Amino acid sequence: MAGNDVEAEKPAHSLFDNLQGLAFGVIMVSFGISLLKAQGLITGQAAGVAFLISYSGGIEFGLVFFVVNLPFYVLAALRIGWGFTLRSLACVASISVLTSLAPRLFSYAHVEPFSGAVVAGLCVGIGSIGLFRHGASGGGVGILAYYIQQRTGFRAGWLQLLLDAVIFTAAAFVLPGWGVLVSMVGALALNLLVAVNHRGDWYIAR
């Protein structure tokens, strides 16, 4: 009963709260992905799958990223709700557009690979947390992780770390060894950030 009382007393997000939180998440994820792309690196989750397809087939990352995420919206619609699904669809579409536009907006004259991978991972991680906390996701695996965390309490970051192991095994056939190693450092930074900081009991507003 006490837990229900506490939950009932939690303040709700306003429309502005949600819009600015989602916009922040989209921008941070897009920036992190553009930094990885500029270095020829990858990350995990659905973005990692999109990177591998993009590098292998020479297809624009933004388009691949949007298509790769489509099947996960079925899960989101059936198990989480249409509000979450539509917000996630809008966020993924926005990330796809921004990452395609990024080369026209930013140029990276020099980026030390390991530093760049860690900064990119942290940007994607904090952006993903922003999306989660405002009822959306920036990718298919994020949708799956969000659903499992909501239902079981198993941390989203730990699940994503396990799934990333599969993606990076496949990356060994596409990227040079140093690229895989550097990318793994960035993905580790991303997932540790999400695993440690994405906790419902640490966040009050709903």
Automatic annotation (TrEMBL):
Q: Which keywords are on file for this protein?
A: Cell membrane, Membrane, Transmembrane, Transmembrane helix
Where on the tree of life does the source sit, at the highest rank? Bacteria
Sequence intervals crossing the membrane: 19-36, 48-68, 80-102, 114-132, 165-196
* InterPro entries with a match to the protein in the record: UPF0750_membrane, YitT
Q: Does the keyword Nucleotide-binding apply?
A: no
Q: Which residues form a coiled coil?
A: none
Q: Does the keyword Membrane apply?
A: yes
Principal location class? membrane
Q: Where is this protein localized, as stated in its record?
A: Cell membrane
Choose one Gene Ontology CC annotation of this protein and give it. Answer: plasma membrane
Name the membrane topology term. Multi-pass membrane protein
Which Pfam families does the protein's record reference?
A: YitT_membrane (PF02588)
**PANTHER family linked:** UPF0750 MEMBRANE PROTEIN YITT, UPF0750 MEMBRANE PROTEIN YITT-RELATED
Q: Could you identify this protein by its name?
A: YitT family protein
